[in-house]
Design brief:
The protein is mostly beta strands. The protein has one domain. Helix content is about 15%, strand content about 45%. The strands form 2 sheets. The chain has a two-stranded antiparallel ribbon with strand order 1-2. Strands 3-4 form a two-stranded antiparallel ribbon. β1 and β2 form a beta hairpin. It is flat and about 35 Å long.
């Protein structure tokens, strides 16, 4: 990959709440996905990385066209 990104924001001490899971993050980087959303015709709200997804069980529901995440307690 190559290219550049401008208008990147950084936040300290952010807590993500997602699918019943809560994760404290000491540092979070944020950027707009507006151009990519416009290009594909679907809104992209953000990207969730492996530190969050590692704690989730993902279920693909083809009948209802849905993807569900459930917090796995270790």
């Amino acid at each position: 990959m190559q290219g550049g990104v401008k208008d990147v924001s950084r936040a300290d001490r952010v807590t993500l709440n997602f699918a019943g899971f809560s994760q404290a993050n000491p540092d979070l980087i944020a950027t707009s996905f507006e151009k990519q959303s416009d290009r594909i015709g679907t809104a992209i709200s953000g990207i969730i990385g492996m530190p969050v997804l590692w704690h989730m069980a993902m279920t693909v529901d083809y009948r209802n066209a849905a993807v569900r995440f459930q917090y796995k307690k270790h």
